[in-house]
Write a structure and sequence with these properties.
The chain is an alpha+beta fold and 156 residues long. The protein is 35% helix and 28% strand.
C-alpha cells in the first residue's frame, strides 16, 4: 500500500512540473476549451477510427559466455535467444491527432505549451483556478492545482 501512495505522490510531483499542453484562444473560457476539445476528439475518432496492430520486436541472441571462479574452474553458459516483446500500436493515432488539431483550428484554437511556474512564483500566487484564458506573454507560466485545475500567471 505504501508503494502505491509513494507512486501517486511521485506522479503528482512530476505532473506539477510539467508544462500545460492545451488549446488556446484568448478570452475563451476553460469550459469552452474542454467542450470544444471533446467535440473535436469525438469527431476525429469517427473520421479516423482506431486501427490497432500487434507488433513484435525482433528476438535477440545472447552469445555463450564462460564464467570462472577464483580457483580457475570454469563453466560455459550456452547461447540462447530472448524472444522479442510484443506491443500494440494505433497506426491511425497521428492522423487522428492532426484531424483534432484541424478541427480546433477551425474553431479559432491553437495548440500551446505553457511552462510550469517556478516554485517562487507558485508559492507567491494566491490559490485560484483560471476560468477565462488570458492573453499569453513570453513570461506566462502555469500553476497546476491539486484538483486538476490550473492557473495561468503572467509574471511581471
Amino acid at each position: 500500500m505504501k508503494i502505491w501512495i509513494l507512486a501517486g505522490l511521485a506522479v503528482a510531483a512530476v505532473t506539477g512540473c510539467a508544462p500545460l499542453d492545451t488549446y488556446y484562444k484568448p478570452g475563451a473560457s476553460v469550459a469552452a476549451v474542454t467542450r470544444q476539445t471533446t467535440t473535436c476528439e469525438v469527431s476525429a475518432l469517427a473520421q479516423v477510427p482506431t486501427s490497432t496492430q500487434i507488433r513484435q520486436n525482433p528476438p535477440r541472441f545472447i552469445p555463450a559466455r564462460q564464467i570462472c571462479n577464483s580457483s580457475g574452474k570454469c563453466r560455459t553458459i550456452p547461447g540462447y535467444y530472448q524472444p522479442g516483446t510484443t506491443y500494440t500500436v494505433d497506426v491511425n493515432a497521428p492522423l487522428r491527432g492532426r484531424v483534432t488539431q484541424q478541427c480546433m483550428a477551425d474553431q479559432g484554437f491553437v495548440p500551446v505549451s505553457i511552462p510550469a511556474c517556478p516554485s517562487s512564483v507558485a508559492n507567491a500566487a494566491p490559490a485560484r483556478a483560471t476560468q477565462t484564458l488570458p492573453t499569453l506573454r513570453e513570461n506566462s507560466c502555469v500553476i497546476r492545482n491539486s484538483d486538476g485545475s490550473f492557473q495561468i500567471v503572467n509574471r511581471g
